[in-house]
Amino acid sequence: MTNETKLPPRQFGRSAIAIFIGFLAVVVLSLGTDQLMHSLDIYPPWGQPMNETSDNLLALTYRCVYGALGSYLAAKFAPRNPMRHALILGGIGFVLSLLGALATIPLKLGPAWYPISLVVTALPCAWLGGALQRKGQTTPR
Fold first, then answer.
1. How confident is the model at residue 9 (pLDDT cuts 50, 70, 90)?
2. What's the burial of 70, exposed, middle or buried (CB within 10 Å: 0-12/13-18/19+)?
3. How far apart are CA 86 and CA 81, in angstroms?
4. What does the DSSP assignment read for 107-129?
5. Dihedral (CA of 46, 48, 53, 54) sign
6. In a domain, 3, yes or no
């Protein structure tokens, strides 16, 4: 018997749930932190451009952390192939960030480098989350 035959059968539902858990974590944490930053007057009010480099670097930093955390969760709850699940979530983040960049850069809501950075960091952050989950894994999958 090979190692592959010992793996559980593919379970699309569990895979979708694992990816959804990771996605939900990223969205809730990102938007919650955004709201907190606006409420504390660290960021300008909603709807006003955010042009300060420090504000954008702060947002990029916590979004990278949350992206890695979401991918970690997707990998942790994956029925098999945890890194694949982390990278699928990263791919979703890449596509959504790309669409967001294309939509927001012309609106001049802040510096163009910020949404571009979200696109560029989506997959590396996802890989990091998957790698951290693999490192912390106690039993092989």
1. low
2. buried
3. 9
4. GTSS-THHHHHHHHHHHHHHHHH
5. negative
6. no
Tokens 């504000």 appear where?
Answer: 55
Q: Total domain count for the chain?
A: 1
Mean pLDDT of the chain, nearest integer: 92
The CA distance from 39 to 120, in Å, is 28
Instruction: Answer yes or no: is pLDDT of 109 > 80.
Output: yes
Angle, vertex CA 55, rays to CA 97 and CA 39, nearest 5: 100
Alpha carbons 104 and 85: distance in angstroms, whole number:
28
Q: Which residue has the tokens 């907190």?
A: 36
Distance CA 67, CA 26 (A): 6
**What are the strands, taking DSSP E only, across 2-115?**
none
* 141 domain residue, yes or no: no
- Domain containing 31 equals 13-136
